[in-house]
Amino acid sequence: MPRVASDAAAHIGLRIAGHRRRRGLTQDEITARTSIDSSNIRAYEHGRAMPSVFTLVRLAQALDVPPGDLLDGLTLEHFRGSSTGGGRHPGE
Predict the structure, then answer these.
(1) Which residues contact 34 (CB under 8 A, 6 or more apart)?
(2) pLDDT tens per residue across span 18-75
(3) Are 20 and 30 in contact (CB under 8 A)?
(4) Alpha helices (runs of H) in the chain, residue ranges in sequence order
């Protein structure tokens, strides 16, 4: 697995980690609130994996933020030239 899945995954991961820290929560507490495995929480926060929309909503609920807050500042440029291939993306 690449060190960073994509610039988009890294951006979202930073947003997740930032909200978690601001709320004084540990990764284990997020795991307990979401039933998402702690290794996945770590992978999301470090940008090694991209959460699905369903997972993003679960994380947002656990962090008590609107899901859009985890995407704030994300642009198409975050997807261009990433290690995910740089070509077409799901849904295109």
Answers:
(1) 41, 58, 59, 61, 62
(2) 999 999 999 999 999 999 999 999 999 999 999 999 999 999 999 999 999 999 999 9
(3) yes
(4) 7-22, 27-34, 38-45, 53-63, 67-71
Residue 62 is given by DSSP the state: H
Whole-structure pTM value = 0.83
Angle at 88 between CA 7 and CA 70, to 5 degrees: 35
Which residues 6+ apart lie within 8 Å of 69 measured at CB?
A: 15, 19, 60
Q: H or E element: which one contains 78?
A: none
- Alpha carbons 56 and 66: distance in angstroms, whole number: 10
